[in-house]
Every structure is written in C-alpha cells, then in structure tokens.
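Good morning N.,

You mentioned wanting to compare the apo and holo forms, so I went ahead and generated the holo version with heme C. This is what I fed in:
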Amino acid sequence: MLRAIPVLCLLGLLGTAEAPDLLPAAEPAKVEALPDKVSFSEQIASFVYTNCTVCHRPGEAAPFSLMNYNDTRKHARSMLRVMTNRIMPPWQPEPGHGDFRDERRLSGPQIALFKKWVETGMTEGDPAQTPKPPEFVGGWPLGKPDLILTMEQGFDVPADGPDIYRNFVLPTGLTEDKWVNAVAFQATAPSVVHHLLYFVDDTGNARKMSGKDGKPGFAGMGFRSTVQLGGWAVGGIPHRLPDGLAYPLVKGSDLVVQAHFHPTGKAENCKLTLGLYFAPKAPTRTLLGLQVPPAYGLFSNIDIPPGKANFTVKDAFTLPVDVDIVSVTPHAHYIGKVLKADAQLPDGKEVPLIWIKDWDFAWQGTYDYKKFIRLPKGTVIRGEVIWDNSPDNSRNPNVPPIRIAWGEGSNDEMGSVNFRVLAADEKDVPLLRNAIRLHVAQAYKAALKRGDKIDHWLQEFGLKKAVDQPKAPLKPSKEQQSLKLDDLDGKARQPLLVEGAKANVLLFLATECPISNGYSPEIQALVKDYQDQPVRFFAVHPDSDLSTDAARKHTKDYSLPLPVLIDRKHDLVKAVGAKITPEAVVLTAGGNIAYQGRIDDRYPDLGKKRNAPTRRDLREALTEILAGKPVSVPRTEPVGCYIPDAR
Ligand code: HEC
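and this is what came out, ligand included:
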C-alpha cells in the first residue's frame, strides 16, 4: 500500500527567501577572476548545456527545458537559487567523501559566474556566437542490446497524485545462463520515469504477485530478489561494469524492473523496454554485496518514535582479507536523513567512503568509485544511518509524525549503506563471503537476544525455524547411526556409530576454507596423540561438488592421516547439525553428542587469530570423556566458513 506523499517541490523546501550565499568556503568565489561582461552566448549557454540540459529537455522528467536563451532567462532566478543551495544539479554525496564517476557538482566559481550574469541583467550577447544545444539521439546509448525485453502492456500514470512505485516482471526466456554487464532502457513516456531499479528473480515469486490488482505489475517497494542489476535515475548514463565484471543471470529467470513514476500534470501510458548487455565470458572476479548495517537494518531495532529527530543506527564490519570497493548504494525510505560510511585502516587512518547529509528518497543512486578502493585486511568499514521522524522534517509523510518501524512498505523504514566489493585476491572469495554471512548472522542473533519485534519478518523470510530451533542437542536416530559411507579408499565407514570405542570424532572440513586448512597440523597432532586411545577420528567434507579425486589430492596436500568421507547429500551434516568448517563433533555410546564446536580457540573471530590457543576445547572434552566424566563445556562456537547448502 502506498500512502499519499506530498509531491516534493524543491522551491517549497527552500522557502521564499532570496537565495542565501552558500558558496563553499573551500572554493571561494574568485570574484576578481570573473569576466567584466557575462553573456548567454559567451559563457552561460555552454555552462547550462553541459550541466542542466541532459535532464532539462523535452521528454525528460525534469519540469522544464533549458535549451536556449529564452528558457534560461525565464528560469534564471530559480536556477540560481537551486544551484546555490546545491539542489541542482541533483547530486547527493558530499564532496571529499568518495570520488565518483559521472559526478555532477558545480564549482563555486561556476555558480558565481551564473550569479553575475543574473545580477547584470542576463544579457544574451551575440546569438550567432551561441553554441548549439546538445543533440540527444534516441536509441540505445551502448549500441544494440543482446536481449531486449518489453512490457506486455503499458502502465497508466495519472496526471496528478502521489508518486507511484511499481514493479514489472519481464520473463527472459533464457535457456542458458548469462552474465550481464549493463542494462539500458527506453520508455514510451520518459517524462514520467524518475528512477528504475533492475532485479533478477529466479524464484517465480514476482510473477505470482504480478497483475493481481488488475493492472500490470505489482505495487510496493518490498520486492526481494536474488541479484540486483543496478539502476537508473533521471539523467543517468548507462555504463558497462568495469574490468570484465558481470552479474549472473540464471536461465529461466525473470527480470523485474521497479519503476518510480512521477505524475507530470498530463496522464501518460508508459511502457518500458529493457536492453540487456551480456559479457562475452564469465567474469574472473566475483562481485559480493556488503551492507552496514546488514539486511537493510532488519536486525538493527529500527523502531522510531514519533517526533524523534536523530534516530541513529551504527554498524561496523572488519575485512577478513584485502578488498576492492567498486560502488556504493545508500538506501533508506522517506524519513532517512543521513547516510554515511568510512573505512578505518589498520594503522588508524580514516578513508571517507560516502556521506549523504540530506537523503532524498527521490534520488536513490548507485555511485561507482572512479577507481576501486583497495582496503587491506583488518580495515573496519563503519556505516551510520540517521532518521528524522520529527515534524520539522519536510519529507516526513506523516503529519503529525507516527511511530515508524522496519518494513518493506513506503510507510515503513529501512536503511543501510550497501557496497559492491571484490576480494583483492579471487582465492579469498570464500573467506570474504563467509565473513559477510557471519556479520548478518551476528546481527540476527543480537536482535533475537534483545527481543526485537521481528517475528513477522523472520517468518516472511523463512527464518522462523532458526528461532524455534530446539535447545536440546540433536541426537542422530538409530537409522542415522547405522549410516554407511565409503572413505576415499573405498572402505565402508559408520562414523555415527560408536562401537568398540569410547568416542567418534567428526571433523567437518572444507578444501577451500583457509581456516579449515590451517588446522591440518593440529589434526595430524590429534590423530597421533590419541592413536592408542579408544577414539576414532573421521574427516568429513560436506561438499556436494567435491570429486573423490579432488578430495584425495587435498588429503595428500595437507597430509591428513585419517579416514576422509565426502558428505555430498549432507546426511552427516543433518544428523549432527554441523554449520561451519572446521567444526568438531564428538559422539559417545548411543549416539549422544558429547561435544560440538571449535577444535580450539586460536580464532576468536573471523579475521582475528591468536599465536596460540588459550583453550583446547576438543582435547579437554576428550580427556573428560576418556575419564568417564561429563564434558564441562559441551558446546562452543566454531569459527570458520559456512557449510554451503547441499545440491
Ligand atoms: C540529473 C538530471 C538533472 C540535472 C542534471 C539538472 N536537473 Fe534540475 N531538475 C531535475 C528534476 C527531475 C527536477 C524536478 C524535481 C525533482 O524531481 O527533484 C528538477 C527541477 C529543477 C528546478 C525546479 C525546482 C522545483 O522544485 O520546482 C530548477 C530550477 C532546476 N531543476 C534547475 C536546474 C539547473 C540550473 C541545472 C543545471 C545546473 C539542473 N537543474 C540540472 C533534474 C535535473
């Protein structure tokens, strides 16, 4: 449900006072350097054509055209006011906080020149000398797309009323997987199109929601998808992703375009056509999403009392490996006010990443850094979102303000700073991906601990199970205990059946997890130290994609002296509830899980490592079991890589 929002009139926001002098101190207006005479033909035309006309031209969403002297003269005073207040050209990020491609920012002297022209009578100069207005050729700016998808039916945008957010589903019909590195669009009524976000849906959910209210597509902003393919806002220039990067587009999936329509006073029917550009081959580097705070703030207790002016959420993420930052997409709804992020390097130095001081929901953008920002392992990425739910916030849709909590509708709020990142070394992708997942999981746990009211969302996201998970430890059933698996030498093993021994130790490992591999010497020592004891060790690879040959090579490379099993269908994972590699599970007679968790505490957290462990939890548990005593610390948190889902 969309609530009526006041149409944002920028001049309204500014009040009626004369434009205050807001030229930034860092760029003093060089008044002495200004030419004596300023005319349209000599200076102003090229300035306006370069900075304004891309949006202010016929057919675009900006409210009037700036294509000639007369247009400019007519609007000159408002132009000066919005320039001085830095509202036009629209550009949200503060200077000095990220160096972005296609930046639209006027310098102090540029504004001073325009001011002088206005104050000296807006002379035209010699029309013969006036440069020609830019020509905007239609068609596809990046050339012919590889795949063109068109809405079946146009959407009616009325002449008047609130802005409309609407999602349209475009089936790709692809019979093979592709990699997308750019998206462009055409519209039958471009003047109503304010911004677009592109998503991929391979679940079929969007399709089901489409058309239910009798109109094309479906309403709301809450669509969740597998991949986001970036977006576009008025004046945006489509680009291909740099350096051979690309987003995956799985065969059979649907493209979902979320459109923000802005009524113009004239009813329009708008049909969108999307053009997809494919990368010739799979990228060699993997784009990952990192959010501070994670999950758009779902786990950050966003519950904003009416009248509260500075509701703040802060979050931090420590990089477990060297990382390149590619782009940033800040996101909040109407009462979001400030979005900010920086990086604190291991030496304490701070690198600003983005700062939006006065968030405007109408100008959501993805900002691409001109050059990837390389940040070393151990860097802390800090994010901050501030909301303003006071009556003084002119963008507050509720008068008087009401309580606003986290949610997917436009009446609700969410907020986070989203980065697209790459591991500097592609080999580190699993570690980075795991650290990001752990970051989400930790926020989720903290939310449960605090008792945040998120039950409804957990259910919606299918996370309810985790909340209801039984506190009692799992115990493999009789049937599971008799499970047989061949080891790499073809010998049948029953790792869950404790017979002729006091304990079976299952060590869940992963060939590509550096923490898991780092434990190989300790695993060798364990097997050796317990060789005369009634303890049997098994290594388990819970990996559907691992071939027997690859497992053999890994076993040899890391000199693992124990039977190695491949748990391709996750029979063992499910029986004992393993989640991480490396993770140790100790079973005693009858299939009881006497200990489960880390091998020792040498990794306090991802990205952090002690020189030597201070607790050797697995060994301590085994000592107690062999002495016939109960295990005093039966559960610990393993630190390592998440076990990927089975196929
Ligand atoms: C990226 C596209 C874009 C560029 C570039 C741009 N504008 Fe705008 N402008 C808009 C849109 C869209 C609006 C309508 C208000 C809105 O949607 O925020 C607008 C509105 C305005 C308004 C009317 C404000 C109001 O609230 O009615 C003025 C004046 C203006 N622009 C001046 C300029 C000037 C001067 C420049 C160049 C220095 C410029 N614009 C560059 C897109 C643009």
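The CA atoms of residues 1 and 220 lie 6 Å apart.

Happy to go through it together on a call whenever suits you.

Best,
F.
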